[in-house]
Write a structure and sequence with these properties.
heterodimer; A: mainly alpha; B: alpha/beta; six-stranded mixed sheet; four-stranded antiparallel sheet; 10 helices
């Protein structure tokens, strides 16, 4: 009985959490697309967020994706060499990076950089009563704080992912050219031949979904910060852990949808 | 079982005599009731000081009056409108006529002082930037902070932060101004300056002012009327002179700053738990 009760209460808590995420995303989406007031101010704030979320993340995203591409090339070459199929390294890297590793690794880096900072920013505002102050001034915190972040994330995640895809391919190319049978030209040609439009598109669709999830979880954790500054640290940690979990969950769902609907 | 009568809460009523009228207000945090059915009125232009010790419910009362907590029962009439029953839009309209100065200032740390004051004007009015700039300068001048437009809140002292917060609360020319512990954490000279500012605002703009505090000196100075809250109920409500003359034990204990008796016997402890007031230590 105790077991069923705990399963039941965990399910209810989980559903309530997802409900909270949906409400925050819905509120922000409404502020963005249905009733956009003060479009110019909203865009200014979004550009500011987009710089922090996207442009400033470029160096780290480039470096990590490059290494992931290189590592993946090394690991796949380890098997392909046995079959005498080293020329398929380019194909393996291209498909793995564009369909899965590019979007996922970008999401993980954005969680570490931006998801955590959303939670810390909103959490600190909560602790300092700034959120309360906003409400007493008849300013809606979701419209004011979450909407620009959501827009920035939805635009920046596909851009960062595209760049990460490219850098991953370059990383794989480094192995292909130095230790494989390729020149840079033939490596890129092999990559282009291996990819179909859907490989890249499914990755980009996922990246937009990841962006929405990271914004929702980061902001939700910020808003649910308790009293006291140590709670901000707790929300930040919790935002990172929950975002990674939610991103993987969304990844599973979308990969399954793409697979079973045969849209890839 | 008799059918429960469901009465749709009224949205407005004609007799708007009082600026704020609180009727049988109850507020719960979870299962715990913090405010037990309290009622009082605040007349327009009056300065009401809500006194009470820690945990008396005075901050909860203030948070409920500005809409940050939802009442679990009762009504709050502000300018003739039932605050808790209003639609979001009408509620926002009413909030724009109210200003709130928080204990720690609650200035937005990522904006300058000027931007903080300008924010409600930018969001709620169609005024152009140059007009807003003039208004910001005017508001900062009223609180004695002219020339601090471009400072970040972190660069200000405690007293200046409070002044900046008051300037932001004044931005929309509110009719009702709320203060949460305006002089808490300030040295006596700075605190006296804040009291003087409140008096100046009251005189200049004839605003209705509600102040929550536990600082008696400041309460005596600024209040037209005082309410003493204890454990979620109003134990006294009257003018400053009436309260000073009161013989009620709890009022006397608070005004004469008599500490709670130490718990030395089991009986004292049980009395404390049941909320019975033990005899005062003289």
């Amino acid at each position: 009985m105790a077991f069923t009760e705990s399963v039941g209460s965990a399910t209810i808590t989980g559903l309530a959490y997802v409900g909270g995420l949906a409400r925050i995303t819905g509120g922000a989406a409404k502020a963005l697309f249905v009733e956009p007031a003060h479009v110019r101010k909203l865009l200014t704030r979004s550009v500011h967020q987009a710089m922090a979320v996207g442009v400033e993340a470029l160096p780290i995203v480039s470096l990590i994706s490059f290494f992931i591409g290189l590592i993946f090339a090394l690991q796949s070459a380890y098997q392909l060499r046995k079959l005498g199929a080293l020329q398929f390294v380019a194909t393996a890297v291209a498909i793995a990076i564009t369909r899965e590793l590019g979007p996922l690794m970008t999401a993980v880096m954005v969680i570490g950089r931006s998801g955590s900072s959303f939670a810390a920013e909103i959490g600190t505002m909560k602790v300092n009563e700034e959120i309360d102050a906003m409400e007493t001034m008849a300013l809606e915190p979701v419209r004011f704080l979450v909407a620009p972040k959501l827009l920035a994330m939805m635009l920046m995640m596909p851009c960062l992912t595209t760049w990460a895809d490219f850098m991953g391919v370059v990383g794989g190319g480094l192995f292909g050219v130095t230790s494989g049978p390729f020149t840079w030209n033939s490596y890129f040609l092999a990559t282009l031949n291996a990819l179909v439009k859907h490989d890249i598109l499914t990755g980009l669709v996922k990246s937009v979904m990841f962006g929405i999830v990271i914004t929702a979880v980061g902001c939700q954790e910020g808003f649910s910060t308790g009293l006291g500054s140590e709670q901000v640290g707790r929300s930040t940690t919790s935002a990172v852990v929950k975002s990674i979990f939610m991103v993987i969950l969304v990844d599973v769902i979308f990969t399954a949808i793409f697979y079973f609907t045969g849209s890839d | 079982m008799a059918p429960e009568l469901i009465v749709k809460p009224q949205e407005s009523r004609a007799d708007g005599g009082a600026a704020i009228s609180v009727r049988n207000l109850r507020v719960n945090y979870g299962d715990r009731e913090i405010l037990h059915s309290i009622s009082f009125d605040i007349s327009p232009g009056e300065t009401l000081v809500i006194l009470g010790g820690s945990g008396s419910g005075k901050s909860t009362l203030l948070r409920t009056l500005v809409g940050l907590e939802k009442p679990s029962g009762g009504e709050i009439w502000i300018r003739g409108k039932n605050f808790a029953a209003l639609s979001d839009d009408s509620r926002d309209e009413l909030l724009k006529k109210m200003g709130m100065s928080f204990q720690g200032g609650a200035l937005f740390g990522s904006m300058t002082v000027g931007e903080n004051v300008a924010l409600p004007l930018r969001e709620h009015t169609p005024l152009d930037d140059s007009t807003i700039e003039i208004m910001v300068r005017l508001k900062l001048d009223q609180v004695g902070l002219s020339g601090f437009e471009n400072y970040m809140p972190a660069q200000l002292s405690g007293g200046m932060k409070k002044r900046a917060a008051i300037a932001r609360a004044l931005a929309m020319d509110p009719e009702i101004l709320f203060f949460d512990e305006p002089s808490a954490g300030l040295d006596p000279i700075i605190a006296a300056g804040i009291d003087e500012l409140i008096l100046k605002l009251k005189k200049a703009f004839r605003m209705t002012i509600v102040v929550v505090t536990h600082e008696l000196a400041s309460a005596y100075l600024i209040a037209d009327r005082m309410i003493l809250l204890d454990k979620g109920v109003i134990v006294a409500n009257g003018t400053t002179a009436e309260l000073q003359k009161s013989l009620q034990p709890r009022v006397r204990q608070f005004l004469d700053r008599v500490p709670e008796p130490e718990i030395s016997t089991e009986l004292d402890y049980l009395q404390m738990l049941t909320g019975e007031v033990p005899p005062l230590r003289r």
